[in-house]
Amino acid sequence: VFAMLALGFVMGRGGWAKQDEAAAVNRIAFLVLQPPLIFMLLTSLDLSAVRYDALALYFAAEVIMFAVSFAIARSVFNCESAEAFLLGMCVIFVNSLLYVGPISVLIYGEQGALPITVIVALDASFWFAFFIIGMELIKGTGGINTALPRIVKNPVLITIALSLLLNVAAISIPVPIVTGSEFAGAAAAPMVLFALGVVLSSHSVKPTKVVAGISALKLFGLPILVFAAFETLSADNPWADLFTLTASGPAGAMAFSLALLYGVRTARIAAIIIWTSVLSLISLSYLA
Questions:
Q1: Tens of pLDDT along 155-187?
Q2: Tell me: the pLDDT tens digits for 214-230?
Q3: What pTM does this model have?
Q4: Helix, strand counts (H, E) of the chain
Q5: Cα Dmax for the chain
Q6: What gap in Å lies between CA 130 and CA 267, rounded to an integer?
Q7: Counting Cβ atoms within 10 Å, is residue 42 exposed (0-12), middle (13-18) or buried (19+)?
Q8: Residues β-bridged to residue 169
Q9: How far apart are CA 207 and CA 185, in angstroms?
Q10: 251: β partners
Protein backbone atom coordinates (compact mmCIF):
# COMPACT_ATOMS: atom_id res chain seq x y z
CA VAL A 1 0.00 0.00 0.00
CA PHE A 2 2.80 2.41 0.91
CA ALA A 3 4.60 1.41 -2.30
CA MET A 4 2.03 3.29 -4.44
CA LEU A 5 2.90 6.53 -2.68
CA ALA A 6 6.62 5.79 -2.92
CA LEU A 7 6.34 4.86 -6.62
CA GLY A 8 4.64 8.16 -7.42
CA PHE A 9 7.31 10.04 -5.46
CA VAL A 10 10.18 8.31 -7.31
CA MET A 11 8.57 8.76 -10.74
CA GLY A 12 7.90 12.41 -9.99
CA ARG A 13 11.50 13.03 -8.91
CA GLY A 14 12.75 11.16 -11.99
CA GLY A 15 10.61 13.18 -14.37
CA TRP A 16 8.55 10.19 -15.55
CA ALA A 17 5.31 11.69 -14.22
CA LYS A 18 4.42 15.38 -14.40
CA GLN A 19 2.71 17.60 -11.85
CA ASP A 20 -0.22 18.55 -14.09
CA GLU A 21 -0.82 14.87 -14.87
CA ALA A 22 -0.87 14.05 -11.16
CA ALA A 23 -3.26 16.92 -10.46
CA ALA A 24 -5.64 15.59 -13.12
CA VAL A 25 -5.43 12.06 -11.73
CA ASN A 26 -6.04 13.37 -8.22
CA ARG A 27 -9.13 15.31 -9.32
CA ILE A 28 -10.61 12.30 -11.15
CA ALA A 29 -9.92 9.98 -8.22
CA PHE A 30 -11.34 12.51 -5.74
CA LEU A 31 -14.55 13.38 -7.60
CA VAL A 32 -15.24 10.24 -9.70
CA LEU A 33 -13.68 7.14 -8.13
CA GLN A 34 -13.86 7.96 -4.42
CA PRO A 35 -17.67 8.33 -4.30
CA PRO A 36 -18.24 4.65 -5.33
CA LEU A 37 -15.71 3.58 -2.68
CA ILE A 38 -17.52 5.58 0.01
CA PHE A 39 -20.87 4.33 -1.30
CA MET A 40 -19.91 0.67 -0.88
CA LEU A 41 -18.40 1.33 2.53
CA LEU A 42 -21.40 3.14 4.01
CA THR A 43 -24.17 1.04 2.43
CA SER A 44 -22.59 -2.26 3.52
CA LEU A 45 -21.79 -1.17 7.08
CA ASP A 46 -23.66 -3.17 9.74
CA LEU A 47 -24.86 -0.37 12.00
CA SER A 48 -26.17 -2.84 14.60
CA ALA A 49 -22.64 -4.18 15.20
CA VAL A 50 -21.11 -0.77 15.91
CA ARG A 51 -19.73 -0.15 19.40
CA TYR A 52 -21.01 3.38 19.82
CA ASP A 53 -19.30 3.78 23.20
CA ALA A 54 -15.92 3.21 21.55
CA LEU A 55 -16.84 5.45 18.64
CA ALA A 56 -17.83 8.25 21.04
CA LEU A 57 -14.44 8.11 22.79
CA TYR A 58 -12.56 8.21 19.49
CA PHE A 59 -14.71 11.07 18.22
CA ALA A 60 -14.12 13.06 21.42
CA ALA A 61 -10.35 12.58 21.01
CA GLU A 62 -10.61 13.85 17.42
CA VAL A 63 -12.54 16.95 18.48
CA ILE A 64 -10.01 17.78 21.20
CA MET A 65 -7.00 17.26 18.93
CA PHE A 66 -8.51 19.31 16.12
CA ALA A 67 -9.19 22.23 18.45
CA VAL A 68 -5.66 22.03 19.88
CA SER A 69 -4.02 21.71 16.45
CA PHE A 70 -5.98 24.56 14.90
CA ALA A 71 -5.20 26.82 17.86
CA ILE A 72 -1.48 26.00 17.68
CA ALA A 73 -1.36 26.53 13.92
CA ARG A 74 -3.04 29.92 14.24
CA SER A 75 -1.50 31.34 17.42
CA VAL A 76 1.93 29.68 17.54
CA PHE A 77 2.78 29.15 13.87
CA ASN A 78 0.78 32.16 12.55
CA CYS A 79 -0.83 30.20 9.71
CA GLU A 80 -3.74 31.68 7.78
CA SER A 81 -7.18 30.29 8.64
CA ALA A 82 -7.53 27.98 5.63
CA GLU A 83 -4.10 26.41 6.10
CA ALA A 84 -4.57 26.08 9.87
CA PHE A 85 -7.92 24.42 9.21
CA LEU A 86 -6.28 21.82 6.94
CA LEU A 87 -3.33 21.36 9.30
CA GLY A 88 -5.87 20.45 11.97
CA MET A 89 -7.32 18.01 9.46
CA CYS A 90 -3.86 16.46 9.02
CA VAL A 91 -3.81 15.66 12.74
CA ILE A 92 -7.21 13.97 13.10
CA PHE A 93 -8.12 12.81 9.59
CA VAL A 94 -6.04 9.66 9.39
CA ASN A 95 -5.48 8.08 5.99
CA SER A 96 -7.80 5.28 7.11
CA LEU A 97 -9.84 4.93 3.93
CA LEU A 98 -6.91 4.66 1.52
CA TYR A 99 -4.08 3.39 3.75
CA VAL A 100 -4.89 1.91 7.19
CA GLY A 101 -8.13 0.36 5.92
CA PRO A 102 -6.57 -1.80 3.18
CA ILE A 103 -3.75 -2.82 5.54
CA SER A 104 -6.17 -3.86 8.30
CA VAL A 105 -8.33 -5.87 5.91
CA LEU A 106 -5.23 -7.72 4.67
CA ILE A 107 -4.23 -8.56 8.26
CA TYR A 108 -7.57 -9.12 10.02
CA GLY A 109 -10.04 -9.75 7.20
CA GLU A 110 -13.30 -7.89 6.54
CA GLN A 111 -14.94 -8.81 9.86
CA GLY A 112 -11.84 -8.39 12.02
CA ALA A 113 -11.28 -4.92 10.59
CA LEU A 114 -14.81 -3.75 11.43
CA PRO A 115 -13.64 -1.18 14.05
CA ILE A 116 -11.41 0.49 11.47
CA THR A 117 -14.22 0.39 8.92
CA VAL A 118 -16.42 2.21 11.43
CA ILE A 119 -13.79 4.95 11.82
CA VAL A 120 -13.57 5.23 8.05
CA ALA A 121 -17.34 5.64 8.01
CA LEU A 122 -17.15 8.33 10.73
CA ASP A 123 -14.42 10.21 8.88
CA ALA A 124 -16.16 9.84 5.53
CA SER A 125 -19.64 10.76 6.75
CA PHE A 126 -18.94 13.50 9.32
CA TRP A 127 -15.39 14.84 9.25
CA PHE A 128 -15.02 14.79 5.47
CA ALA A 129 -18.27 16.71 5.12
CA PHE A 130 -17.16 19.07 7.91
CA PHE A 131 -13.88 19.91 6.18
CA ILE A 132 -15.43 20.31 2.73
CA ILE A 133 -18.10 22.64 4.09
CA GLY A 134 -15.50 24.46 6.17
CA MET A 135 -13.27 25.07 3.14
CA GLU A 136 -16.23 26.30 1.13
CA LEU A 137 -17.03 28.82 3.85
CA ILE A 138 -13.41 29.88 4.46
CA LYS A 139 -12.37 30.17 0.80
CA GLY A 140 -15.73 31.22 -0.64
CA THR A 141 -16.26 34.84 -1.64
CA GLY A 142 -19.98 35.19 -1.00
CA GLY A 143 -20.47 33.57 2.37
CA ILE A 144 -22.99 30.82 3.02
CA ASN A 145 -25.30 31.91 0.18
CA THR A 146 -22.56 31.35 -2.38
CA ALA A 147 -21.09 28.27 -0.72
CA LEU A 148 -24.39 26.42 -0.22
CA PRO A 149 -25.04 25.61 -3.93
CA ARG A 150 -21.51 24.23 -4.31
CA ILE A 151 -21.89 22.20 -1.11
CA VAL A 152 -25.21 20.72 -2.27
CA LYS A 153 -23.69 19.76 -5.65
CA ASN A 154 -20.51 18.18 -4.23
CA PRO A 155 -20.50 14.53 -5.43
CA VAL A 156 -18.74 13.27 -2.29
CA LEU A 157 -21.26 14.87 0.06
CA ILE A 158 -24.16 13.65 -2.09
CA THR A 159 -22.73 10.13 -1.92
CA ILE A 160 -22.35 10.27 1.86
CA ALA A 161 -25.94 11.42 2.39
CA LEU A 162 -27.41 8.95 -0.10
CA SER A 163 -25.41 6.01 1.26
CA LEU A 164 -26.43 6.60 4.86
CA LEU A 165 -30.05 7.05 3.83
CA LEU A 166 -30.06 3.74 1.94
CA ASN A 167 -28.36 1.98 4.85
CA VAL A 168 -30.76 3.27 7.51
CA ALA A 169 -33.76 2.53 5.28
CA ALA A 170 -32.41 -1.01 4.66
CA ILE A 171 -32.83 -0.62 0.90
CA SER A 172 -30.98 -3.33 -1.02
CA ILE A 173 -28.58 -2.18 -3.73
CA PRO A 174 -29.03 -3.76 -7.19
CA VAL A 175 -26.19 -6.11 -8.10
CA PRO A 176 -25.08 -4.15 -11.22
CA ILE A 177 -24.65 -1.01 -9.10
CA VAL A 178 -22.67 -2.96 -6.51
CA THR A 179 -20.46 -4.44 -9.22
CA GLY A 180 -19.82 -1.09 -10.85
CA SER A 181 -19.13 0.63 -7.53
CA GLU A 182 -16.68 -2.06 -6.42
CA PHE A 183 -14.93 -1.93 -9.79
CA ALA A 184 -14.54 1.86 -9.76
CA GLY A 185 -13.94 2.22 -6.03
CA ALA A 186 -11.03 -0.21 -6.06
CA ALA A 187 -9.06 2.26 -8.20
CA ALA A 188 -9.49 5.21 -5.84
CA ALA A 189 -6.85 4.36 -3.22
CA PRO A 190 -3.94 3.50 -5.56
CA MET A 191 -4.66 6.43 -7.86
CA VAL A 192 -4.86 8.99 -5.06
CA LEU A 193 -1.72 7.63 -3.36
CA PHE A 194 0.22 7.54 -6.64
CA ALA A 195 -0.86 11.07 -7.61
CA LEU A 196 -0.04 12.24 -4.11
CA GLY A 197 3.45 10.78 -4.40
CA VAL A 198 4.05 12.56 -7.72
CA VAL A 199 2.88 15.92 -6.39
CA LEU A 200 4.81 15.50 -3.14
CA SER A 201 7.99 14.83 -5.11
CA SER A 202 8.16 18.51 -6.08
CA HIS A 203 8.04 19.66 -2.47
CA SER A 204 10.78 19.95 0.08
CA VAL A 205 10.77 17.32 2.81
CA LYS A 206 12.71 19.57 5.18
CA PRO A 207 11.09 19.30 8.64
CA THR A 208 10.35 22.94 9.52
CA LYS A 209 8.91 23.87 12.90
CA VAL A 210 5.36 23.71 11.55
CA VAL A 211 5.95 20.35 9.87
CA ALA A 212 7.64 18.88 12.96
CA GLY A 213 5.02 20.24 15.35
CA ILE A 214 1.95 19.12 13.42
CA SER A 215 3.56 15.76 12.57
CA ALA A 216 4.26 15.17 16.27
CA LEU A 217 0.63 15.95 17.13
CA LYS A 218 -0.44 13.43 14.48
CA LEU A 219 2.02 10.64 15.29
CA PHE A 220 1.94 10.96 19.08
CA GLY A 221 -0.81 13.32 20.23
CA LEU A 222 -3.84 11.60 18.69
CA PRO A 223 -2.87 7.95 19.40
CA ILE A 224 -1.79 8.74 22.96
CA LEU A 225 -5.04 10.60 23.63
CA VAL A 226 -7.09 7.74 22.16
CA PHE A 227 -5.14 5.17 24.18
CA ALA A 228 -5.50 7.20 27.37
CA ALA A 229 -9.23 7.68 26.82
CA PHE A 230 -9.83 3.94 26.55
CA GLU A 231 -7.50 3.08 29.42
CA THR A 232 -9.27 5.58 31.66
CA LEU A 233 -12.91 5.21 30.63
CA SER A 234 -13.26 1.84 28.88
CA ALA A 235 -10.23 -0.34 29.56
CA ASP A 236 -11.95 -3.61 28.56
CA ASN A 237 -13.35 -2.31 25.29
CA PRO A 238 -12.54 -4.87 22.55
CA TRP A 239 -12.20 -2.10 19.96
CA ALA A 240 -9.55 -0.17 21.88
CA ASP A 241 -6.52 -1.75 20.18
CA LEU A 242 -7.70 -1.25 16.60
CA PHE A 243 -8.84 2.28 17.35
CA THR A 244 -5.36 3.05 18.68
CA LEU A 245 -3.91 1.42 15.56
CA THR A 246 -5.98 3.68 13.33
CA ALA A 247 -5.07 6.80 15.31
CA SER A 248 -1.40 5.95 14.69
CA GLY A 249 -1.80 6.06 10.91
CA PRO A 250 -0.40 8.83 8.69
CA ALA A 251 -2.08 12.13 7.89
CA GLY A 252 -4.82 11.68 5.34
CA ALA A 253 -4.21 12.40 1.69
CA MET A 254 -7.53 14.24 1.54
CA ALA A 255 -6.06 17.26 3.36
CA PHE A 256 -3.66 17.63 0.45
CA SER A 257 -6.44 17.06 -2.10
CA LEU A 258 -8.55 19.79 -0.52
CA ALA A 259 -5.55 22.12 -0.46
CA LEU A 260 -5.12 21.59 -4.20
CA LEU A 261 -8.82 22.03 -4.92
CA TYR A 262 -9.18 25.24 -2.88
CA GLY A 263 -5.87 26.90 -3.65
CA VAL A 264 -4.32 26.62 -0.19
CA ARG A 265 -0.52 26.43 0.08
CA THR A 266 0.48 22.77 -0.05
CA ALA A 267 4.17 22.78 0.92
CA ARG A 268 3.78 22.17 4.65
CA ILE A 269 0.80 19.86 4.28
CA ALA A 270 2.77 17.83 1.73
CA ALA A 271 5.78 17.52 4.02
CA ILE A 272 3.56 16.45 6.93
CA ILE A 273 2.01 13.70 4.83
CA ILE A 274 5.46 12.53 3.68
CA TRP A 275 6.93 12.39 7.18
CA THR A 276 3.89 10.84 8.86
CA SER A 277 3.57 8.26 6.05
CA VAL A 278 7.19 7.16 6.47
CA LEU A 279 7.39 7.31 10.26
CA SER A 280 4.00 5.67 10.83
CA LEU A 281 5.34 2.52 9.14
CA ILE A 282 7.15 1.86 12.42
CA SER A 283 4.19 2.42 14.73
CA LEU A 284 1.69 0.65 12.46
CA SER A 285 3.96 -2.40 12.12
CA TYR A 286 4.36 -2.58 15.89
CA LEU A 287 0.71 -2.07 16.78
CA ALA A 288 -0.60 -4.38 14.05
A1: 877 888 899 899 999 999 999 999 999 999 988
A2: 999 999 999 999 999 99
A3: 0.84
A4: 17, 0
A5: 52
A6: 23
A7: buried
A8: none
A9: 34
A10: 94
